[in-house]
Write a structure and sequence with these properties.
By secondary structure, the protein is an alpha+beta fold. Helices cover about 20% and strands about 45% of the residues.
Length: about 160
């Protein structure tokens, strides 16, 4: 069965609404049980198992990070984080019927003590689990990947 670009773009927009609201528990459930979120250091690093990453979380690590986000003893979470993520021009770049890959340009504004801007491309790999769409992997390709940068305080 072929994938519908409008449905996938609506899915990604709903995903970003969860991230903007810092509603991480339902966001994590958008991933398959073996799903991963990663941010490579270089465009050629498409396999997070073979290279060091800026960030690499599988679902168990996402749950640990979720506990840290809200924990009162977590010094990195001393101040609240506010964020806004926007996308445009979601495109299906591969459709096998069983799964598909989209590429979507994004901009993210994260406020944690000061304002930080990020831009790049989301590369989602989607699969179906019954009637549900699930994220098999989400790759965040920053425009400035490989350049020196400060800590990224939340998922982009």
């Amino acid at each position: 069965m072929s994938w519908d670009q409008g449905v996938l773009e609506a899915f990604i927009r709903a995903e970003l609404r969860l991230l903007n609201a810092h509603d991480f528990a339902p966001w994590i459930e958008l991933f398959t049980d073996d799903g991963v979120y990663f941010m490579p250091l270089d465009e050629a690093q498409a396999d997070p198992e073979l290279y060091d990453m800026i960030m690499y979380d599988n679902k168990p690590l996402m749950r640990i990070r979720l506990e840290n986000f809200g924990h009162p003893d977590s010094p990195s979470m001393e101040y609240p984080i506010r964020s806004l993520r926007m996308i445009s021009d979601c495109q299906i770049v591969e459709d096998t019927g069983a799964g598909c890959i989209t590429e979507t340009p994004f901009m993210a504004s994260i406020f944690y003590q000061s304002l930080h801007w990020y831009a790049g491309t989301y590369r989602h790999s989607f699969v179906r689990e019954g009637d549900a769409i699930k994220i098999k992997s989400k790759q965040v390709n920053l425009l400035n990947m490989g350049a020196p940068m400060g800590a990224i305080m939340t998922y982009l």
